[in-house]
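Work Package 3 committed the consortium to producing structural models of liganded targets before the mid-term review. Because experimental data for this complex are still outstanding, the team generated a predictive model from sequence and the ligand definition alone, so that downstream docking and mutagenesis planning could proceed in parallel. The input record is reproduced below exactly as it was submitted to the modelling pipeline, together with the SMILES string for flavin mononucleotide.
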Amino acid sequence: MKQLLQPFQFQNGVELSNRLVLAPMTHYSSEPTGEVSEHELTYYRKRAKNVGLAITACAYVTENGKGFPNAFGVNDDKFIPGLRQLAESLKAEGAKAILQIFHAGRMSPPDLVPQNQPVSASAVAPVREGAVTPRALETEEVEAIIEAFGEATRRAIEAGFDGVEIHGANTYLIQQFFSPHSNRRTDRFGGDVHGRLTFPREVIRRVKDAAKDAEQFLVGYRFSPEEVEEPGITLDDTDVLVDMLLEEGLDYIHVSLWNFHTASMRDENVRERAIDRIAKRINGAVPLIGVGQLHTPAQVEDALQVVDLAALGRELIIDPDWLEKVESDREDEIETALDLNKQAELAVPAPLWNAIISRAGWFPIKDQPKT
Ligand SMILES: Cc1cc2nc3c(=O)[nH]c(=O)nc-3n(C[C@H](O)[C@H](O)[C@H](O)COP(=O)(O)O)c2cc1C
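The resulting structure, written out as tokens with the ligand in place, is given here.
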């Protein structure tokens, strides 16, 4: 039997029916108030139905942590009933459900956050056109955000999730604290690579504390192994991050890569894949999730030589029946490009659909037959 169809057990006893993970994907389709919407429940039910583990889009832990229009919140108890529906939808056919929790930091669009003022570790703008300079958070505000990650975890437990994933990847606030580009602080949250790990470490400790009495609750951590800024996070920095994650004792580590096989974004002379380097450092101590353009079952099988679980993102938007087709020996029927005629059938909410078709090259698009 294929490795990807094999069950998997975490050290705390949580069992997955197979090795496939629905990757976290923002869909811009919650209610403008931050509530979970009907559209997103339908979208998730369709995609979580076969996977072992389903991770939600990122949910903001504070009002000033919003990253996208129509994202959903986990910053208030009023969101718990909707979050419960979300957890139930993901778990309806046996998947374990993970809520991804995050703060966008300097990546917040100004119009989504209080006083139109994004915040970050330091007042350094991201390197991109039109970016605004964030306000540096006061030490007490940083502590309040750490507390908010703990509160978000309490809400995830109350809503019936099987775990949370701390979103330390993709240039958002946790990564901004780790990055020498965005973190120029002189308090205990700044300094050398170890000082810059203080915020991620304290977030993990607060989240784990909130989860300590929950039975079989998973706490995972997602990170990006490098960033292109100068100065920026290097693979050497990431070794130190991984050591910290091992010390803190997470249930899994999730490496965010656009392409699973990436060696280095910073140095073209590097030959070893980042995922291999990280897997070696972890050395089986904690389950590892890999992701990034794993389109076919053969590619997933190959990835599972290195990682314990394989996450699929765009693949499951394009073809929610991906795993069902593998299980029933219909691999050749897997769709590898988005069929623009199938929005309703695929239950992709309109804002996500519009984002996909307006951003060239983001998703492979199926050639339309000429009429
Ligand atoms: C539409 C879309 C939204 C995404 N939103 C998130 C997110 O909320 N959190 C996150 O950690 N990664 C997010 N990602 C990154 C994916 O989890 C994944 O790492 C990436 O798409 C590469 O995997 P794939 O090639 O299987 O799609 C998003 C990707 C896409 C395409």
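Reviewers should note the following from the model. The domain at 3-367 is CATH 3.20.20.70 (TIM Barrel). These observations will guide the Year 2 experiments.
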